[in-house]
Amino acid sequence: MKKVLLINPAESTPGWPTTPRAVEPMGLLYVAGAFQEIGVETTLLDLQLGFGDQEEIYRGIARSEYSAAGIALASQACVWDALKIAQDLKNLNPDLPIFSGGVFASLNPEWVLDTTPAIDFVVIGEGEPFVTEFVLDPGNWKQIPNVRYRGQLLHQGNLPATTLSRPHIRPDRSLTFEVIKRGEAPSVVATRGCGGGCTFCCISHYYGSSWQSREVGEVHQEIEDLVRNFGVRRIHLVDDNLFGHSRGAKEWVRSFITAMKNFDPPLRFKTTCRLDDLDEHLIPDIKRAGFDLLKIGIETFSRKTQKVYHKGMLRYKAEAKLDALLKTGINVSLGFIMFDPYCSLRDIEENLEFLLNYPDCWGRHLLRSKLVAYQNTPIIASLQKDGLALESGILGVSWRFQDQKVADFHRRFEAMLRGRILPLEWEYFHHQRSLLRQGFDPPRSAEIDALFKNCWIDIFTGTLKHQRPSSSLENRLLDLTSLVEEYGQSTPSIPIAEN
Fold first, then answer.
1. What does residue 21 show for φ and ψ, rounded to 5 degrees?
2. Residue 165, pLDDT score
């Protein structure tokens, strides 16, 4: 095998007008590392980060310099760009084997294959096991267990995460500097899977119900190498649930935290976890280890919805853990699903009351968050059983509210957002995107962000109470309009650093 092209397509259809973030596509980079470990040269083209010479790479495709090409399909935001790229590659070289992988491709392999004749097969779940067998026998990819292809009769289940027991595989680090120069932290994967089994989540469908951890010493060494090679002091642990969901996980977490405390001077970490898997007694040690931000999904306190979600965090327990984290100095970013098929107005009021008690722990767009019923996730069966499922499409199953009062509130809230504030949100977003394209790091405006959030809260609470827009909201919207216009007219002064 000569060399392999691996592509991370751009996200052309963002669902939210949020500030563009620079993030390493770790799934793709682990696949690159697996190829490199076996001695196969890889070329990376990251169209999200603007990394790689696309024209030169395409000329190489036409000259048959590549033995295969892989395209990451991690989310629906990049679907259409990915499918176009696949067709472009096949037009340049009809004999080039093209495969796709990632969460979206793994959840929707039949759709990917039916929609894009240029993609020859889809790799389900983790890519590293596929790489080993593919390199050994490139022409026999139909026999690889986690490959799906057209005309396949037997559809095997998803493979659980197991390859992290092989600590010698490292991700490709070609994109790390690109991320650092844009002000973001490099990513490290310490665990895979979650183990929680939430019915709306695609993680358990993607990995199986397992949670797998790497050897602590190997993770420590990888972080040490990042510190030495790139001079970083911040690390993003891009785990789905760092603290695990089993007794063995607790032992690993204690060992991991102890190891992270050994860095001198201390590093700073951010990661994601389930709140019910967080051992409250470990919080002081977690802080001493350098963790300063935890992203935590609570979703709802509605008992009815929690039962459907297979979640069960009681509010008083959640508040106790959050209070302990904040008292220790660990920041929290909460995840909530404000609108779901089963919620009542009382549920929404309780969730809002909780969020307002922790105003610095969530972003304004959370107030608009609505359940996404991804294809093949267990919650779809519940929606169908309860007569709430509507149309099925590639982005999931649409649904209706069980409570008509909630449906009416949601309709009014969306109308207010679309008419009064979302145009300003998108204008702000496009100003930031424009700065990035010009080679500047878009500055954040604390004043604009605070005004946006206050307007969102005013609109949400006012609509919930059937109130007309207040004079204070109107004044804030006028101030916000002026500030966003000034932001767009300001001259950028912070160029993205060059190597």
1. -115, 145
2. 44
162 has pLDDT over 60: no
Superfamily, domain 185-371: tm_1862 like domain (3.80.30.20)
Per-residue pLDDT of 219-271, as tens digits, reads 999 999 999 999 999 999 999 999 987 777 889 999 999 999 999 999 999 99
Highest mean pLDDT among 222-226, 306-310, 438-442: 222-226
Please state whether the predicted TM-score (pTM) of the whole model is above 0.70.
Answer: yes
3-149 — its CATH code? 3.40.50.280
Tell me the domain boundaries of the chain: 3-149, 185-371, 403-490
pLDDT for 326 beyond 90: yes
CA–CA dist 229, 289 (Å, integer): 21
